[in-house]
Specification:
216 residues, TIM Barrel, eight-stranded parallel β-barrel, 52% helix, binds SN-glycerol-3-phosphate
Length: 216
């Protein structure tokens, strides 16, 4: 499963990229606003920090304006992935852009039928929002299961990009189901390495090693 980080904070992205475990970045208008940075400037900086796809989202609602915004965004770098909303105008834009060889992430997916439409529109990635699905009384992981089944039934190449990931159990279940990618905030990704028994074991090994008086 590929790991994307869901943030526009360049310090966090650089730190995770240095581990060699990061495959891409996702941003959205809320994350750009939170960063307080200029959209184009910060996106360019992020594209230089990772080799993989960097999702940058359009903010218009009609196809023509989305295409105009996508034109500006795709000039930023070769690894920009244009993010469009799951609306008919977004799908029309997705079809046009992917037909032209541009990566597209169709976002705000909350149903398997929406995911089917995104795949038919040739999306590179589709982003089901697991956490927000859970928040509203549905099971976000059921949506990932349905999508896996449907995409495999028809051999769609669209990658399932599990988004709105809130904790390690989401990550684990997405990996079990076979989501292609997951995107999570930096804290969730960093939290995956933690285990109390790892810390305790390490403490014990180091204490015993100190007793030997040796050095490597
Ligand atoms: O990538 C989509 C994601 O940012 C949404 O996450 O936590 O705002 O629901 P959240």
């Amino acid at each position: 499963m590929k790991f994307f980080v869901d943030t526009a904070e360049t310090k966090d992205i650089a730190e995770l990229a240095a581990t060699g475990l990061l495959d891409g970045v996702t941003t959205n208008p809320s994350l750009i606003a939170k960063s307080g940075r200029d959209f184009i400037e910060v996106t360019k900086e992020i594209c230089g920090l990772v080799d993989g796809p960097v999702s940058a989202e359009v903010v218009s609602l009609d196809h023509e304006s989305m295409m105009r915004e996508a034109e500006v965004l795709r000039k930023i770098a070769d690894n920009v992935c244009i993010k469009v909303p799951l609306t008919f105008d977004g799908l029309k834009t997705c079809k046009a852009l992917t037909g032209d060889g541009t990566m597209v992430n169709v976002t705000l997916c909350f149903s398997a039928n929406q995911a089917l439409l995104a795949a038919k529109a040739g999306a590179t990635f589709v982003s089901p929002f697991i956490g927000r699905h859970d928040d509203n009384g549905f099971d976000g992981l059921d949506l990932i299961r349905d999508m896996r089944l449907i995409y495999d039934n028809y051999d769609f190449q669209t990658e399932i990009l599990a988004a709105s990931i809130r904790h390690g159990v989401h990550v684990l279940e997405c990996a079990r189901i076979g989501a292609d990618v997951m995107t999570a905030p930096p804290a969730v990704i960093k939290g995956l390495v933690k285990h109390v028994l790892t810390d305790k074991g390490l403490e014990g090994f180091l204490a015993d090693w100190a007793k030997t008086g040796q050095k490597i």
